[in-house]
Design a protein that fits this description.
The protein contains 14 helices and 13 strands. The chain is α/β, with parallel strands linked by helices and 361 residues long. The chain has a seven-stranded mixed beta sheet, with helices on both faces. A four-stranded antiparallel beta sheet has the order 9-10-13-12, with helices on one face. It is an enzyme of class 2 (transferase).
Length: 361
């Protein structure tokens, strides 16, 4: 009986088995988390604990003002969300109706698909080229009068490359009658953004995250930058349905980071140093190729006669958790995704990979 009560669109969403992934054991590298928690933000969370009996701010005005200053926009351009996942879902709920069409490249972040299917949309995909670049002409050919949203991760997850520069975004937007959603959760590393275009183009929506360089993945905090009119519709639904969506600890942590631009620069520089050091170590492994990324993860292509599934399973026995890219369309069994481990784990991870692929330490 229960199957008859469930919305048909929900049944189209693929089941995902995340397995038994430990919270605090070994090297957990499958989500591109920052291995270092920002101390100032941690202290802000501790100080906020005494107010745990009170609801968080429903308007999040202090944080919105700080984000507006950081992004050189108005607080009315900002919508605060419970991670970028909620931002994607909120956009889908506000703009997608049943039988609308959405478009996104593949491979890419899977939540665009599940959020769109949830709302009853028809999904159209465009395969990336062999070098992982986006064919804009082919993208245009998929657009029709039923197209409601084009989802673009920029840089893309899991390929790690920039799909559209600002000029291309602006050019694309002027020719579209649909929403162009640019997911910039790795902005602090990529430094390519469409945020400066939102006031002139109401169909551009930008998504950002505090989970990556800012090291607040466990706090669940993201935000949307949009034209004031566009933001007003997103705000209408959020204030009606999820007014307390972001807890007071996440708000306090983000406020502490944004109050001091020096802290932001330090977090970015420190993360870049850690990643560069890890990539140097990975490049010592002859049987893999490190593909350059502008993200908080590394993408590796395996040249040896071993699959990504086998590599993942063997590393897991050593308490090293990576992502098998066969989960993503078009990548297959020769690519793996791994975040940047803490410096004390970096040589350990590299040695473990060497051992699995049969290279000398």
């Amino acid at each position: 009986m229960i199957n008859q009560l469930v919305r048909k669109s929900i049944l189209k969403i693929e089941k995902i088995n995340w397995g038994n992934i430990p919270n605090d054991k070994g090297a957990r590298l499958l989500w591109g988390e920052n291995p270092i928690a920002p101390i100032g933000a941690v202290n802000a969370i501790r100080n906020e604990a005494i107010r745990v009996n009170f609801y968080p701010s429903p308007t999040k005005l202090i944080l919105r003002k700080l984000l507006a200053k950081y992004n050189k926009v108005s607080p009315e351009n900002i919508i605060i969300t419970n991670g970028s996942d909620e931002a994607i879902e909120l956009i889908a709920k506000v703009f997608i109706s049943e039988k609308d069409q959405v478009i996104f490249p593949v491979p890419t972040f899977p939540v665009y698909k599940s959020a769109s299917l949830m709302m009853g949309a028809k999904v159209k995909t465009i395969p990336l080229k062999k070098d992982f670049s986006l064919d804009i002409k082919k993208l245009f050919k998929l657009v029709n009068n039923k197209t409601k949203i084009i989802w673009i991760a920029n840089p893309n997850n899991p390929t790690g490359n920039i799909l559209l520069n600002q000029t291309e975004i602006q050019s694309l937007t002027t020719k579209l009658d649909c929403l162009l959603v640019i997911d910039e959760c790795y902005f602090e590393l990529a430094q390519v953004t469409a945020a400066g275009l939102v006031n002139n183009y109401p169909n551009i929506v930008v998504i950002r995250s505090f989970s990556k360089v800012f090291g607040l993945a466990g706090a669940r905090l993201g935000y949307i930058i949009a034209n004031k009119k566009t933001a007003s519709y997103l705000n209408r639904l959020q204030l009606a349905n999820q007014v307390f969506n972001v807890n007071r600890f996440a708000q306090a942590a983000a406020q502490e980071i944004l109050k001091n631009p020096k802290i932001v620069r330090q977090l970015i520089n420190k993360y870049n140093r850690q990643k560069q050091n890890f990539e140097k170590l990975l490049n010592q492994i002859e049987s893999i190729r490190v593909i350059p990324t502008k993200t908080t993860f590394c993408l590796l292509k395996i040249n040896e006669d071993i699959s990504s599934t086998q590599l993942k399973e063997k590393l897991q026995k050593k308490d090293i958790y990576i992502k098998n890219c066969s989960l993503y369309q078009l990548l297959g069994e020769k690519y793996v995704y791994l975040g940047v481990p803490a410096e004390k784990y970096q040589q350990f991870v590299v040695n473990a990979i060497k051992k699995v692929v049969g290279e000398k330490l």
